[in-house]
User: What shape does this take?
Amino acid sequence: MPMQTLKWQDDALILLDQTRLPEELVYTTYRDVEAIARAIEGLVVRGAPAIGLAAAYGVVVGAHVAVDCTPETFCRRVEAAIARLACTRPTAVNLFWALDQMQEVLAANRDRDNHAICDALLAAAHRLFEEDRQICRQIGAHGAALLRDGSQVITHCNAGGLATADYGTALGVVYAAQEAGKKVAVFADETRPLLQGSRLTAWELMQSGIDVKVICDNAAAVVLRNEAIDCCIVGADRIAKNGDVANKIGTYGLAILAREHDVPFYVAAPVSTLDMELASGAEIPIEKRDAAEVRQGMGKPTAPDAVPVYNPAFDVTPGDLVSAIISEKGVARAPYEPALRAWVEP
Assistant: This one.
């Protein structure tokens, strides 16, 4: 079972600091909204579902800090916390989905006292956490059915327990297959520039006894040609209604390579990642990260100080390169819009 990524304890949010993996296993306690916002921005916590959960608990932290204020000031402070957390990372729609739910709880309880509102917000955050745990299991079960015993898969970035409340989305498929008695071997793209694949995915798979090899991102084509890969499985930060998928930079290139080598390319993500307001991936906002992440990879000079850098955190993979989208509701194949709409409609 992957390491716990976040938890609520003693009226505070505790986060596993993923910037310090795999060298150190460090948990940090947060009792301040601004500190939580910076932790999200600084990738202490990352992965779309985990970001949403951290933000939900961040709202609770803001409420606790303001609980002794007047009711009017209290509500303003909680709304300010929601607004600050919404500014952290623009691409992962789970963040906004979770904050919208917290806003609805605040609105529904405005006539209650501050302590009661705090309790309601905490209950909502706990509910989101438990729902995500169940969703991971359901995604895993649906996806595991697509893997044969002895499968070899490529994954990109980290969409495992470190990115969710349980054992992940893309990696959840691998864990579920293992629990079903299937052997699965994983090739993990290192995922430049911040190496979430080599630092995080390889680490958590090793913790769970999964056969894993790290490959350089630019080795994926050779691996697809030479290593009898059964499929690629990745997560997602936002999915448009036509099946276009925003995920960690490099996902699009891997999807093109998979198509060239006739290898299925699967996306595993919760329904909360769907953005049915967007006609296509062209409308998905793409976060641009600091140039230092490329010029000083992992703290060491890796490019000239003065060289300009283009550093998008995500790219968009067209839906026609996606073989299937796996969610807690099942497995969808093209054309995607009817299936995705059925998933989100009550």
About this structure: The CA atoms of residues 190 and 216 lie 5 Å apart. The longest strand covers residues 184-189. The domain at 145-344 is CATH 3.40.50.10470 (Rossmann fold). The chain has eleven helices and 14 strands.
